Amino acid sequence: MEKQRIFSGIQPSGNLTLGNYLGALRNWVSLQDEYECIYSIVDMHAITIRQNPKDLHERSLLTMALYLAAGLDPEKNTVFMQSHVLEHAQLGWILGCNSYMGELSRMTQYKDKSTRLGDSIPTGLFNYPVLMAADILLYNAHLVPVGDDQTQHLELTRDIAIRFNNAYGETFVVPKGYFNPFGARIYDLQMPQKLMSKSAENQQGVLFLLDDEKTLQRKISRSVTDSLGTISYNDNQPGVKNLLNIFALLRKESIDGALAYFEGKGYKQLKDGVMEAVLDTLLPLQEKVYELMKERDHLEDLMAQGAQKARSIAKVTLADVEKKIGFISRRTNEHCD
User: Fold this and answer.
1) 32 near 77, Cβ under 8 Å?
2) How far apart are CA 220 and CA 190, in angstroms?
């Protein structure tokens, strides 16, 4: 039976967090035998906000290294840089011509970010959900791993696919969301009402995957709890609940199991347990990342191989789309790989 295809990607626009690892990378690894997985480093999305070129280059390599260190096998998965497959931009333009200003202006992330930018709103910030749709539809992905904050973008992708199929005939698979059955969302250690984010203004509540051991220890030891002094799992104790989620996910334990482990213990023991689980996970991951970063040519070779695999699918989809909308087929002017 043919495997269903999954597509997902992460921007190299900042240091990845423990939330990125638990919510994406580790789950991707668990999917690579059951599904045909296509994972991109979406550097074209990163430039919706101006980036320092040297930093973007370095973070792109680091993100590739993190993908591999987390356990993504480039033989089992297609792993590539988004900008290395030109069909993403080409399909993005075509889908943009089949999208509406109204639906893009309703995107929550656009509304949130644009309020902070005044009159200097990059058009890329407005248009990037269409590029995200192109990322997914280019590979006719059946499933897209999404969190609650991304469902709106997936719905837009579905709307665009259905609209195009109705106008030009059956072309795209209409994707569905793949919702992680295992994990909970990871929140900021200092503000446990907010998701842990790599763009947080106060980074003391964010556990970055490449934070050194002392930094990780300091952040966890200073994490916000409450004055109740009891370890229980409820919304009235968001800091304690968040720490229990982190412990349970890292130890691959149920919440009931985590509560039993900390029964009769205090907040210091809870933080110590979380700290041990974090260090047991991240220090070996960091060691693998730094080893991979010593072989940058090898990383770029793997990117090129991944892009070639991705293009073998993408160019077929794009050719079908272009034929259906009336473009003349390219013959002698096919762009180089």
Assistant:
1) yes
2) 9
